[in-house]
Give the backbone structure.
Amino acid sequence: MINKFLEIIGRPAIQFVLECGRMGILFFSTLFWMVRPPYRVRLFFKQMEEIGVQSVWVAMITTTFTGGILALQSYSSFKRFDAESLIGTMVAISICRELSPILVGLIVAGRVGSAMAAELGSMKVTEQIDALYTLAVNPIQYLIVPRMIACFLMMPVLTLFGDIVGISGGYLVATKIYDLNPITYIRSSFDFLTYEDVYSGLIKSAIFGIAIAIVSCFKGFNTQGGAVGVGKATTSAVVISMMLILILDYIMGALFFSV
Amino acid sequence: MMQDQPDISIRIRDLRKAFGSKKVLQGIDLDIMRGESIAVIGASGTGKSVLIKHIIGLLRPDGGSIEVDGIDVLTLDQAELNEFRGRFGMLFQGGALFDSMTVFENVAFPLRHRTRMTTREIKERVHELLEMTGMEQYMDRWPSDLSGGMKKRVGLSRALAIRPSIMLYDEPTTGLDPVMGGIIDHLIIKTRDTLNVTSITITHDMRSASRIANRIAMLYKGTVVQAGTPAEIMKSAIPEVSEFVRDRTAMLSVK
């Protein structure tokens, strides 16, 4: 009875630790293959396009509305303290420090992570990944390296765009709907915003980028069992990267960016 | 060691591998000579594919040793292993063509990534390779437009692109009609004879095995129970082997 109970808890726990370890190994192999020639620049630009350029619109629309809703919701509460002039500060800091990196991360995880897991997963089940090995083209170098670098570089770019349009969204709501003074709003946005607020968000987003790429590629590379397996790999890639983004955000916030 | 016996291409000693509690390979001993064509037969789940994956270093054994052309596979690191695999060509069960590329691009892929050939040289070489398997008129097609046998023929062209010295065939005739199976067998024989490569074929098709192989090794429960010429295998007195041969031949007559 006790044994059975321990087994129910222990088995998934062991599975979890094993999986984390294997993802870590994949991450370090990716670093190993990253520094070795040949450097496949074309593949890298293709991934930048796929990950960055094609996510720009969804990322910007999401952050615009988030900036807008922040201004909208905070207006009624800030008004009670006659502190409407601080709405700009609140929106700018929340967007740059947390909301833009997190939302962009979640969107990229959904859009790009799922595509990566599905693509690599179907390559895995049709033996195309094994074929790369036998053609002496290392699949980690050929498939994962460009994806990871592209995610790492494009996430901060998307987040920076998100910062700008998020603050603009707040500005539009505050000045057009609540008739706050535009100059006051802009000054309150930028007077208190520090460089650290911006770059802490950008650094976090770059780390999220690595997490999304590694989790999704790992799930793709370990797909088993045909079309059903590809579906499962895709789902778990998205779910795990989304959770990981929120967990990493807390850890990094608590350790480095809490001041 | 290799210098003493120059004609052994692959030497496998006491190879062991388990997945969890399932022991798949339980001490395989096998020598494969240079230029010979060997067929590894056995029912599904006896570890044929696992054996091949060990030879090209896709799996690490739990025990034993594998030497290919005098190189101990187990001592190679990731990067050396990648170079090492260049000497193999492998034909996969489903062809394993890259479905995001045309037939031409598939065959050109190893040439682009592994050689310094110019675009023009690549074009000529791809033509030559596809002509050999009779697929040159399908050059601009996508893999999804091809039948199973055609995919395998393109896969063979691609595998031969960087002139491997050892060819591995994973169930080359499985899922094909007898005519297409015959064409593939013919191509395997042609490859062996014209390019002088060592061939290893895993199969459970006895007819195909006796057609393409000089020697047949039978796997049973993770060990080699018998290795010998096709005639010896056909007349084998070992019960596991004779039973397997009888079953497969009976299946053929039902067809």
Observations:
- The first strand of chain B starts at residue 8 and ends at 19.
- The mean pLDDT of chain B is 87.
- Chain B touches chain A through 27 residues (CB under 8 Å).
